[in-house]
Automatic annotation (TrEMBL):
PPIases accelerate the folding of proteins. It catalyzes the cis-trans isomerization of proline imidic peptide bonds in oligopeptides. Keywords: Isomerase, Rotamase. This is Peptidyl-prolyl cis-trans isomerase. It catalyses: [protein]-peptidylproline (omega=180) = [protein]-peptidylproline (omega=0). It comes from Pseudanabaena catenata USMAC16. Belongs to the cyclophilin-type PPIase family. Its EC number is 5.2.1.8.
């Protein structure tokens, strides 16, 4: 596990990033964080009880880092990830969206369109399982719950 410390206007969110079950996704997030990409960006989307979303340099949900990564989801019982496609056939992902505090990559309708935007669940969002690349978790859900649209990501520091 890799740790990320996210300083926001509303406090600190400490996250555990699962580089075993989401190595491509975690590497993307870590690389962007280490290069200061997220510093000063806002949370542009806040859906109470559902998610907060940030990581868009344009601040409106349409921007990204310029580099796309493929959808990456490890299913229970599989030794390698399903890359580039949504899970089907009743497979269950290892990292689930079943509670508040799950980190996941945002994307367009194209499963392989994730760049820099990420979201944190604010409650059970199990209907996202197998469709979005979940890659970590935080127990600092009270900070995530306090985030409002326009609040800033002051910095993200990685502790490997």
């Amino acid at each position: 596990m890799i740790r990320a410390v996210i300083e926001t206007d509303k406090g600190t969110i400490r996250a555990e990033l699962d580089d075993l079950h989401a190595p491509i996704t975690v590497k993307n997030f870590v690389d962007l964080s280490k290069h200061g990409f997220y510093d000063g960006l806002t949370f542009h989307r806040v859906e109470p009880g559902f998610v907060i979303q940030g990581g868009d340099p344009l601040g409106n949900g349409t921007g990204g880092s310029g580099d796309r990564i493929k959808l990456e989801i490890f299913a229970e019982g599989d030794s390698e990830a399903t890359i580039g496609k949504i899970l089907t056939g009743g497979k269950k992902p290892v990292i689930k969206h079943n509670k508040a505090g799950v980190f996941s990559m945002a994307r367009t309708n194209d499963p392989n369109s994730a760049t820099s935007q990420f979201f944190i669940t604010l409650g059970d969002a199990s209907f996202l399982d197998g469709q979005y690349a979940a890659f970590g978790y935080t127990e600092d859900t009270e900070v995530a719950q306090a985030i409002r649209r326009g609040d800033k990501i002051i910095s993200i520091k990685i502790e490997d």
